[in-house]
Write a structure and sequence with these properties.
By secondary structure, this protein is an alpha+beta fold. The protein is built from ten helices and eleven strands. About 5% of the residues have low confidence. It is an enzyme of class 2 (transferase).
Length: 291
């Protein structure tokens, strides 16, 4: 069933206007006719309905997001399949994706970046505590509300830690520019994988460019594994640069111990409290920077 304005899904969600088109489907603003609430509804593309892998991944997104209740993660309200369509009903988040903000502003202030990192890391900690690794943290999956709140969206390729992945063996999931070296090497994702991806996002926000580029996806993945990132601008304070370098360390053991530690360090650096930041992430002081 091709989505169009006025169509109703599940007997209660009436489509209003299309918000976005993604790899797996379309996202529409809709009205929940039962309780009168505005929602976002993600509708799986027709061509994927016959693919059990895609359908299972779509169902998994509903299950995964429902595991976590945190103000920094977009809520999932409902899931359904009908007449050859599968759909996911989510919280309608006002605002825009960080990717849109970056297209417009190119570079963000250090304070803004630390705020985004702190909020995202706090939300990731809730996901990690529920045993969930997002695996695709990137600017397009971080929604920024008009009052500056961050909401993580799209748990489509998230994975329960230690669970057999939904993707075929050897298939790398995640957006390659934000992919951790261990993911690029075919190793399992872990909570520190999300910390790496968030570090790449922070680097891009501060520098106005991504640290690793290449002519192809394979070349970029190899750069994630082998290359040191270019230095961040010296106009950014050294503790902040060190925090970002720690997040994108090649060895997971050199990264912040947890997303909670990263959130604490980011909040402390916003206040100029280097001592508290270093207590959470010792690399802030320069020990073991970008290794």
């Amino acid at each position: 069933m091709r989505p169009s304005a006025g169509l109703t899904f599940g007997g209660r969600y009436e489509l209003q206007s299309r918000i976005a088109i993604g790899g797996m489907g379309e996202v529409w603003q809709a009205t929940d006719l039962v309780i009168g609430r505005q929602v976002a509804i993600k509708i799986l593309k027709d061509e994927y309905l016959g693919d059990p892998g895609f359908l299972e991944r779509f169902r998994a997104e509903a299950r995964h997001a429902a595991l976590v209740n945190h103000e920094g993660i977009a809520n999932v309200y409902d899931y359904g399949e009908e007449e050859g369509s599968a759909y996911l009903v989510m919280e309608l988040v006002p605002g825009e994706a960080l990717s849109t903000v970056l297209e417009r502003e190119h570079v963000l202030s250090t304070d803004k970046v630390l705020d985004i990192v702190a909020q995202t890391a706090a939300a990731l900690q809730a996901a990690h505590a529920a045993g969930l690794v997002h695996r695709d943290i990137k600017p397009g999956n971080l929604l920024i509300t008009p009052d500056g709140r961050v909401k993580i969206t799209d748990f489509g390729i998230a994975r329960i830690a230690d669970q057999v992945p939904l993707t075929a063996t050897g298939q790398v999931m995640g957006t390659v520019q934000y992919l951790s070296p261990e993911q690029a090497s075919g190793h399992p994702a872990s909570p520190t994988t999300d910390i790496y991806s968030l570090g790449i996002v922070a680097y891009e926000c501060l520098a106005g460019r991504r640290p690793f580029t290449g002519e192809s996806q394979v070349a970029i993945a190899m750069a994630q594994i082998n290359e040191a990132p270019p230095e961040l601008p010296v106009t950014i304070s050294e503790p902040v640069r060190n925090l970002v370098y720690a997040c994108i360390a090649k060895n997971p053991a050199d990264r912040p111990q947890s997303a909670a530690h990263l959130a604490r360090a980011s909040q402390a650096l916003r206040r100029g409290d280097i001592q508290t930041a270093a207590a959470a992430v010792p690399a802030v002081l320069g020990a073991g920077g970008a290794t």
